[in-house]
Amino acid sequence: MRTSRKLTHVLFAVFTLAIMSMAALAADPGTSLPASSQASDQKQGSLLIFSHYDSVTSNVSANDTRINITNTHVTASVVVHFFFVSQSCNIADFKTELTQSQTYSFLVSDFDPDTKGYIMAVAEAENGLPIAANFLIGDLFTKSSTGPVSANLGAIAFAALWDGTNNGNNPNAEGFWPIPGGDSTTPSVSITFGTAGNYNALPRTLAVDNIPSYAGGDRTLLVLLTPAISFITGTGGTGVGTLFGLLYDDAEQSQSFQISAGACQSATVISDSYPRTAPRFTTVVPAGRTGWMKVYKTTDLGILGSAIVYNIGGRDVNFHGGHNLHHLTLAGTQTATLPVFPFELQTN
Hints:
The chain is mostly beta strands. The protein contains 3 helices and 22 strands. The longest helix has 20 residues.
């Protein structure tokens, strides 16, 4: 019996769908960003920094932060260890597993309510050791009735720089390599940021490329942080501390200043008192004008940050939002300490 033309079309459609499904599992077109490319919010990594979170449980409808993270690997799952770092360097943490191609979101009010700070997420094996799994991307949405503030900030991704060619360990079941020299029987492991470290280098000099006028009603929330600490005790590093900076007006004139950025993270509105310049900020950047600034530690310290802009005059008229700060220079080798303990899948 001759096959009908209609049946032939159906079989061809099924075959086409099968081919398309197989293609979807293949590598993405184009050239992948190399692991050695510097940390940014436009790449995949094994370690992500979400620069700012905040929540107020008495009014979460107006004050909360949503964290989003995705495992882009199409065949392998990965354990992700989240560290919630308060501005005063107190640490809280939890782990979850992301299956292949899974995206996961949560509200900070459900995990670390009534706290301000930043989050670091690290790809790990089930035994608790960091692994080279450069397939994590993420972002955050934050909102606050103070201002009011709202912004979407990409997670800054740091790729793991080790693989099977420079690691004496064996890969795990998913094919991911544990950190060189890692030992799952010890309570902690040291990781390094730097061109010759475990992960991409941290920036040392940061820039805010455009600061609108405080005198015109605009407010810029400047967020600064450092992950070069112990994520066991919240200490072990010097913290952000005092930073040196230069404030420029739009006529290329500059004023130097020093600011204190607290312990592990700070989020402060740029004004006449922060930073304290001579003359004051509203004189350097009067109404209707803009400026920019750069900040760095006089000693070698890796820092990150973001800027969130809002206007007290009315959000329907003025622009608002946020972005991560620009990385102008890189710091030398920076060290952080992570706890090591196995992941235990929760079952109901």
